[in-house]
Amino acid sequence: MRCLSSAEIEDYILHLPMPAEQREAAARHIESCAHCGPLYEAELDEQARAAEALFADELPASFTADVMAKLDMGLPASVPDPIRPRKPLPRWRRAAAIASVLLVAGAFAAYSSPTLADLVRSLFSRDTVDYGMLKAQELGLVSNPNVTVKDKGFTIRINEAVADPARVVMALQLSGPDGKGLHDRLWLGEPNRIVVKDDQGREIGRLHDIGMTSAFYMLIGYFPEPTSADHITVEGTIRRLGNEMQQIPYVEGNWDFSFTVDLRQAKAQTKVIPLHGEYTAPDGITIRLKRLIRTVQGVRLELDTELSNKALARSPGELWKQQGLRFHFEDDAGEEIHSVNSRKSMHKDSLMSSTQTADARKGHMHMSYTFRYLPPGENYKLVLDGYYVTERSGAALDFNPAALREHPAMFRDSGDELRLTGFEIEANQDYPRIKDVEGVLRVQGEFVNEFHRDEWTVRDLQGNEYAIQMRGASSIGEKIVLENETAGKDYAFRIPGIRTIPDRLTLVRKVIDRTYSNVNWSAEIKEKE
């Protein structure tokens, strides 16, 4: 890969949209390149001082004026990006340039007299905002719950929430006794939970931390069905703070809260568009379009699928419920708008959430896909690219584990290829304290089918069968390619229960996540009057 320019390094650090494989290639190049590595570090260091200033307890009085002065001069504003994974990182990433500040500056109308720094810290900072949130802001649908709950020296504050009949988004800030923000102590799982209830008191959703920013916890809850309630209530039960994985002791307390959001104005902006279209694929799935629901914060596509009796026979028990569709939208000129579950190296994706609910009738499934954006008031087309269903397999390969290093064995099934490259006995990774060992089958593979819902086992000469745990990375393109478990170690099929290298084993693929691409269907979606 060629060396990157300063602008490209900045785009990479800013997490501007780019294909996943391009980002991965850039990461590998930066790590190994004598030119790009130092340039990357310099970009990071440049922002460290700005980050410290922005997230200090007290911001310089000149912060907003300095940034706006740079905007007037047409220079990039050094506004640090609060986005980072929930796990602590050793250094700050670079923050937003001028486009981010302009986006944030557009939020001034929704607040009484905020500083620019306050807005960067809000839901509407560059890397947290999406089209639906901006639309809600434009319509004045941003709520201030004004929640402050204190106990045991810790404080929870909620000052921003956006809701419509399809989802709730809110910013939750947690601070410690010293007043500084904490971003590693709130875990939403028992005994902590945040639920959404309709005006009849029925639970219609739960909020989850999507981990997008260190300035606050960004929590989102999607409703399985758009609610018709005029008001919803967000109820938080927070009884424990701490983090066992990071060895932060638990603190028990009571930080419960509750607030109500009025949905009447958001409901008035909701539009339901009936859809018509049905297709039966050669291998037995029928797809029926139902409706498009355009809410303030997104666009929800609803459809049903039905498997034929022949298809159901390939997916006995509960297997048939594990299925998915692959499709895209394109405009009148044939240009792609968005793709879902695409295998293409270059594609657009604005999917926010998806749901699958099995009907009481076997083989019938209700599906929904919620997108950040689809062109309003336009006509476009849904094009089916394929689908996948988990099915029973049974394909098998007999092999000699000890001989694999010198003579790798090939497993071929339904267009997939798995190369067995070695067999080892290593310490059990899941229970290191008990000092047990387990078998590790090293593999390389390329799959045209889906892979991650596969089920594999090995069987020894005595007929004993051992479940396999799949460990390692994979990349998705036209094929799924298995990569290393750790540096220099092929993808691992870990086999608890095997403690010595057997003379013979049989590798069995019990379940395959089969992909079907032999489809030919598109359906018009007409929103234009």
Point out poorly predicted stretches: 47-59, 70-121
Radius of gyration: 26 Å
CATH architecture of the largest domain: Sandwich
Determine the N-to-C terminus distance: 49 Å
CATH class of the largest domain: Mainly Beta
Q: Quote the beta fraction.
A: 35-45%
* Overall strand count: 32
Secondary structure class reads alpha+beta
The 3D shape can be described as globular
Transmembrane segments: 92-111
Domain DUF4179: 92-174
Keywords: Membrane, Transmembrane, Transmembrane helix
Protein name: DUF4179 domain-containing protein
Key phrases:
single chain, 529 residues, Immunoglobulin-like, 4 domains, seven-stranded antiparallel β-sheet, 32 strands, DUF4179 domain-containing protein, DUF4179, membrane, transmembrane helix, transmembrane
Task: Explain how this protein is built.
The chain is an alpha+beta fold and about 525 residues long. The chain has four domains: about 5-120, no CATH class; about 140-265, bacillus anthracis domain (Immunoglobulin-like, Sandwich); about 270-390 and about 515-525, Sandwich (Immunoglobulin-like), CATH 2.60.40; about 395-510, Immunoglobulin-like (Sandwich), CATH 2.60.40. It has nine helices and 32 strands. Strands 17, 18, 21, 25, 26, 31 and 32 form a seven-stranded antiparallel sheet that branches. Strands 22, 23, 24, 27, 28, 29 and 30 form a seven-stranded antiparallel sheet that branches. The chain is globular, with a radius of gyration of 26 Å.
